[in-house]
Amino acid sequence: MSTFAPFARPLYIMTKPVSSICNLACEYCYYLEKNNLYKTDDKTDKFIMSEALLEKFTQQYIESQTQPQILFSWHGGETLMRPLSFYKRAMELQQKYARGRTIDNSIQTNGTLLTDEWCRFFKENNWLVGVSIDGPQEFHDEYRRNKQGLPSWAKVMKGIDLLNKHGVEWNALAVVNDFNADYPLDFYHFFKEIGCRYIQFTPIVERIAPKSDGRYLASPMDNPQAQLADFSVSPEQWGNFLCTIFDEWVRNDVGQYYIQLFDSTLANWIGEQPGVCTMAQTCGHAGVMEYNGDVYACDHFVFPEYKLGNINTHTLTEMMYSDREQAFGAAKRDSLPQQCKDCTYLFACNGECPKNRFAITADGQPGLNYLCKGYYQFFDHVAPYMDFMKQELMAQRPPANVMDFARQYKP
């Protein structure tokens, strides 16, 4: 069994400056309910990060890094519910503690609160902006609505227009659910039509919590028999969705449009580290810090049982390189059922995200990824093209040559 040195990989923390506070109420959102973790009688506690904590985090985060280039990632809730002055102060603190290192920033937003002022700031300071958008209006507004039930697509598109107007670098985070998964080409063509060249497709898989403690969605530790949420994509939908989009991309768009899952698949095919944690052999180096300094093992594991500590009592290094966090990361590899270990495509999938491993294998063993059938279909479908791109890269030729191969290849 292979082992890894924890300090060999950068420590990465996703930061929640407004906790789960958001101006939208997307039906499938896994983070809205996290405010139940922090219910308090303190009327001054507004679920926002204090400037003192921001400075403590900034100093520790920079000092904990072993690389010359450091990435700060701001996530919500809705990050733009903090004023622009907060992020200007964040940059001042980054420069205060940088000591010659390069600092980059990325921020995830639903796009509805973007203004010219925000976009000028992002452009002038080279921030990468991730926009959550689920495709064309009909698809997006199915689940992404505000607290009054009103649709949000028009406001998101206005925000995207502002990003483009100011030349801000942005990419799309698109959730694939039970509805839009049935229309993969409509989905993909939309992003091409609006000029989005960097797309992250995220399958939504959630289960209903069997508890009555204010939680709606289940923890990975909850009973595997917990009911699947209606908006979850099915394994068959996910496989068909990926294969359909891949067929268009591999014939026409390689090197022009970048789809994170396709890039990560190719990385695993050639033995490189994939760009997304779900496809890596182990996890545990990417944590999340809440507005009050609580640190959790992962953004999808913000449950009490996965809390590592608080930055006010433990350093980021202590928490993220702790035996507990390293065990959490290694469990992704070590807890795979035999069906996964015997699978032809284990190297490409690595069991995907542990939060989705609540299905049962063919021989009755627990721990199979719910989306396994869909991923297997995808990897089996793309194997000839991945083999070709691998050969091109090894020969120091551009992998985009696969487009000519794909147009002539008869499966």
Structure notes:
The protein is globular. The longest helix is centred in the last third of the chain and has 23 residues, at 372-394. Helix 1 packs parallel to helix 2, helix 7 runs parallel beside helix 13 (372-394) and helix 7 (235-252) crosses helix 14. By secondary structure, it is α/β, with parallel strands linked by helices. The protein has helices at residues 51-63, 84-97, 116-124, 137-143, 153-165, 184-193, 235-252, 260-269, 316-320, 323-334, 338-341, 346-349, 372-394, 402-408, and strands spanning 12-15, 69-74, 102-109, 128-132, 170-176, 198-203, 258-259, 286-289, 294-296, 307-310, 359-360, 366-368. The strands form two sheets. It has a ten-stranded mixed β-sheet with strand order 7-6-5-4-3-2-1-8-9-10. Helix 1 (51-63) links the parallel strand 1 (12-15) and strand 2 (69-74). It contains 14 helices and twelve strands.
